[in-house]
Amino acid sequence: MIFDCDGVLVDSEPLALKVCLELGAELGWPLTEDEVVDRFLGRSERAVARQIAERLGEELAVRWGEEYRARLARVIDAELAEVAGVSEALDALPIPLSCIASSGSHDKMRRTLGRTGLRARFEGRIFSASEVERGKPEPDLFLHAARRMGVPPARCAVVEDSQYGVRAARAAGMRAFGYAGGLTPADWLAGPRTTVFHDMRELPALLGAHA
């Protein structure tokens, strides 16, 4: 079982959205909430930085990245909580092997998972897009996680909350469970070999039904 982190385990996406909207307004790229979700949610820092540089230039892209990390760290420390129902779901999952594969950096995950107390559940089984050449929607990160866990891709399931994440899971030959209880609309997650759900407490039963 492969879990995304932001928006699946920790409820960080609304905080990141707020920071992106602020920075866009300040640095000359006014964005709507839907545009932030469509362009940035689920993408690696490198992919987001490329988009910003194409729009605003390298200098402002660097400034955006520095400001984003600093501001997000502050709001995470002040406001972050786990996704509603995720601890209950994890407690009920009869799965011996589970890991995290996130577009976020290891530094970011240490902060978010540590803040919510979830890190201990996945210690030693946390993988970042910084470890592979291509981030989501390419399959590299999920295939890397499967190799490290010693499980064939066809026997893996992925829990994701972004359109890029579910696309990466499909490209890796894995079944996807698209969590639509966050920012991404359900129809952006729907597709082949994908089960869309809205409450994390539903996940154990859904996994059992598709075992």
UniProtKB/TrEMBL annotation:
<dbReference type="InterPro" id="IPR036412">
    <property type="entry name" value="HAD-like_sf"/>
</dbReference>
<dbReference type="GO" id="GO:0046872">
    <property type="term" value="F:metal ion binding"/>
</dbReference>
<dbReference type="InterPro" id="IPR023214">
    <property type="entry name" value="HAD_sf"/>
</dbReference>
<dbReference type="Pfam" id="PF00702">
    <property type="entry name" value="Hydrolase"/>
</dbReference>
<dbReference type="InterPro" id="IPR023198">
    <property type="entry name" value="PGP-like_dom2"/>
</dbReference>
<dbReference type="InterPro" id="IPR051600">
    <property type="entry name" value="Beta-PGM-like"/>
</dbReference>
<keyword id="KW-0460">Magnesium</keyword>
<comment type="similarity">
    <text>Belongs to the HAD-like hydrolase superfamily. CbbY/CbbZ/Gph/YieH family.</text>
</comment>
<dbReference type="GO" id="GO:0016787">
    <property type="term" value="F:hydrolase activity"/>
</dbReference>
<protein>
    <submittedName>
        <fullName>HAD-IA family hydrolase</fullName>
    </submittedName>
</protein>
<keyword id="KW-0479">Metal-binding</keyword>
<keyword id="KW-0378">Hydrolase</keyword>
<dbReference type="InterPro" id="IPR006439">
    <property type="entry name" value="HAD-SF_hydro_IA"/>
</dbReference>
